[in-house]
Amino acid sequence: MSLAEPFLMRALLAGVAMAVLCGPLGCLLVWRRMAYFGDTLAHSALLGVVAGAAQAYGFSGNLWGFVAAHGVIELSVIIIAGGAGLQLGWAVARPGLISRRAALMLAARRAVRLLLGCALLLIIAGAIEGFISPSDLSLVLKCAVALLSGTALYTYLLLAGRERKRKS
Question: Is it the case that residue 47 has pLDDT exceeding 90?
Fold first, then answer.
């Protein structure tokens, strides 16, 4: 491949544009204490860049096979952890009829329980990522693992803690 190929020229121009824009933008984000937003944006953009490159070179089946098997659990954990953080913020912003400290303590107890559950889910996702994602299993089997793990997780989340109706 030479540098004159259209894909490489577009990639080079995109890289130069990113270098020119990201330095000042990064400084602005850090100075304004928005570093977490910038970090999140960078990670989401990175997945898009990798997915585009994998598609261009015919490697997308391997990429999505790797990501799909453990991605359902990991993305669910990210959402649950975000909800735990939002509970803390809501307790501070809108404590209701109790003091902010008491509201924050109640929310922190709930958040810790959620995060302990997230830690267990990340262990499961790590086992899938370590043993199934890099294996030579077909894309169909890896997607089946994703479907089964997602079904098991959301079945548990929807049904756990509910009391069974007693027959009268």
Answer: no
